[in-house]
């Protein structure tokens, strides 16, 4: 379960920006849109949140920050010394260009709260820390800080970090400057840190505008879970009678002879031994007989919804966290509402999965769908730095204020400032 994310000095985010799914006061939509965490005293979380803002305001950079954090956690231990990290600081201020970017996320695994973060430049990690709250009391499991004077890290491995002294020393000495201690220790068999690593690997799912692709949903259609995908599509009023998946091993001979050799080698290396899935959709004609269509013949909206089927089903069944950029893209507003309400319904979301997304779709910006603390805005200030802030900063009237109208009229900011053009025409 996701609780909070803080990002500092990353791309368009300069000052520390905080995004939270902690429920505020107010009982509106409490049963459907929020839930209590029994293991943490008085903690209530939200099942979803939406972020509005104009193009180029930094919404995607905020999601990219968490994506970058996930990438470094999962991959840094496997990199080589000297490999660069995918870090870009805020470049529009001379004071921040050379400073490290900082990321911190707070989440729950099996009822235990974790607070994990690190700061880094593209060359190396500068700081890393992990605080854990079993029984709601903080434990410092480890911290490391780069000392510029000595060109070494200052370490503190807490007494609550499990492992023999010799084993901890191995984890510490094996951690390169451009790698995370968390990732290295898990690679060297730290069972205690495995749940933290696994949250990034298994529980956190992020997608850009193009979604996840079709492979996840196609895999489900190859086994007994195909009925779930069909039910998902039928509930969204997508008129497909059946789906067929034809699989074959990747064959390099299928690549175009006109493709550059260097590109061809990369594709062959990445696809060697992997399955190729060809998706076919079945529609019935006017006489009720099945007609086979290539998946590419379907509309962009149908393909987009199919790509969401697998992640939606998996997340709702297992209580995962989804971050999606521009959920509305190629989807009718009623389909967007359908996807959101699957998370808001305790029957379809029994394990409290969470959905966080950006959108320009304002028809869902109302108090029948969202609590006031579920709505966030994103805009750039005069220094071209991204600012993220919640609707609750404006104290809108409960159940009475027309949020869509107020937003489009400029009350909450986060709107594009469109200038008139005369000379161009």
Explain what the structure shows.
The protein has two domains: 1-209 and 325-425, no CATH class; 213-310, no CATH class. It is built from eleven helices and 18 strands. The protein is of the alpha+beta class. It is globular, with a radius of gyration of 24 Å. The protein has a seven-stranded antiparallel beta sheet. Strands 11-15-16-5-17-18 form a six-stranded mixed beta sheet, with helices on both faces. The chain has helices spanning 30-33, 59-75, 165-174, 181-187, 194-203, 215-220, 226-235, 261-271, 300-318, 333-344, 403-408; strands spanning 2-8, 17-20, 34-36, 44-46, 48-52, 101-109, 112-120, 125-133, 139-147, 152-157, 204-207, 242-249, 275-284, 290-294, 321-324, 354-358, 375-380, 386-390. β9 (139-147) and β10 (152-157) form a beta hairpin. α7 crosses α9 (300-318).
Task: Please give the structural blueprint.
Elements: E1 2-8, E2 17-20, H1 30-33, E3 34-36, E4 44-46, E5 48-52, H2 59-75, E6 101-109, E7 112-120, E8 125-133, E9 139-147, E10 152-157, H3 165-174, H4 181-187, H5 194-203, E11 204-207, H6 215-220, H7 226-235, E12 242-249, H8 261-271, E13 275-284, E14 290-294, H9 300-318, E15 321-324, H10 333-344, E16 354-358, E17 375-380, E18 386-390, H11 403-408
Parallel strand pairs: 5-16, 5-17, 11-15, 15-16
Antiparallel strand pairs: 1-2, 1-6, 3-4, 6-7, 7-8, 8-9, 9-10, 12-13, 13-14, 17-18
InterPro entries: ATPase_AAA_core, P-loop_NTPase
Organism: Thorsellia anophelis DSM 18579
GO molecular function: ATP binding; ATP hydrolysis activity
């Amino acid at each position: 379960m996701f609780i909070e994310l803080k990002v500092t000095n990353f791309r368009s985010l300069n000052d520390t920006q905080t995004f939270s799914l902690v429920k505020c006061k107010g009982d509106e939509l409490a049963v459907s849109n929020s839930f209590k965490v029994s293991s943490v005293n008085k903690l209530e979380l939200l099942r979803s949140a939406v972020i509005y803002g104009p193009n180029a305001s930094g919404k995607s950079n905020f999601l990219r920050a968490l994506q970058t954090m996930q990438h470094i956690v999962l991959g840094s231990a496997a990199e080589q010394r000297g490999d660069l990290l995918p870090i870009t600081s805020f470049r529009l201020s001379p004071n921040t260009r050379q400073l490290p970017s900082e990321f911190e996320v707070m989440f729950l695994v099996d009822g235990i709260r974790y607070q994990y973060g690190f700061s880094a430049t593209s060359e190396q990690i500068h700081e890393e820390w992990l605080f854990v709250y079993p029984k709601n009391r903080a434990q410092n499991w480890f911290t490391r800080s780069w000392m510029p004077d000595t060109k070494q890290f200052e370490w503190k491995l807490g007494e609550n970090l499990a492992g023999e002294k010799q084993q901890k020393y191995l984890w510490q000495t094996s951690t390169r400057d451009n790698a995370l201690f968390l990732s290295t220790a898990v690679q060297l068999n730290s069972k205690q840190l495995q749940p933290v690593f696994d949250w990034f690997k298994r529980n956190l799912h992020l997608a850009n505008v193009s979604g996840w692709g079709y492979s996840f949903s196609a895999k489900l259609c190859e086994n007994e879970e195909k009925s779930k995908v069909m039910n998902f599509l039928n509930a969204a009023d997508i008129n497909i009678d059946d789906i067929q998946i034809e699989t074959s091993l990747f064959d390099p001979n299928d690549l175009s002879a006109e493709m550059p050799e260097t590109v061809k080698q990369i594709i062959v290396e990445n696809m060697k031994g992997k399955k190729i899935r060809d998706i076919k959709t079945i529609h019935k004609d006017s006489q009720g007989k099945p007609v086979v269509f290539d998946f590419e013949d379907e509309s962009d909206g149908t393909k987009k919804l199919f790509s969401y089927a697998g992640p939606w089903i998996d997340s709702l069944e297992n209580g995962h966290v989804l971050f999606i950029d521009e959920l509305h893209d190629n989807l009718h507003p009623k389909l967007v509402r359908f996807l959101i309400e699957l998370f808001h319904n305790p029957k379809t979301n029994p394990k409290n999965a969470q959905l966080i997304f950006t959108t320009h779709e304002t028809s869902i910006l109302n108090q029948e769908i969202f609590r006031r603390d579920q709505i966030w805005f994103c805009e750039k200030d005069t220094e071209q730095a991204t600012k993220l802030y919640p609707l609750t900063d404006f104290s809108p009237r409960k159940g009475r204020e027309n949020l869509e109208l107020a937003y489009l009229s400029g009350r909450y900011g986060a709107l594009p400032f469109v200038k008139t053009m005369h000379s161009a025409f």
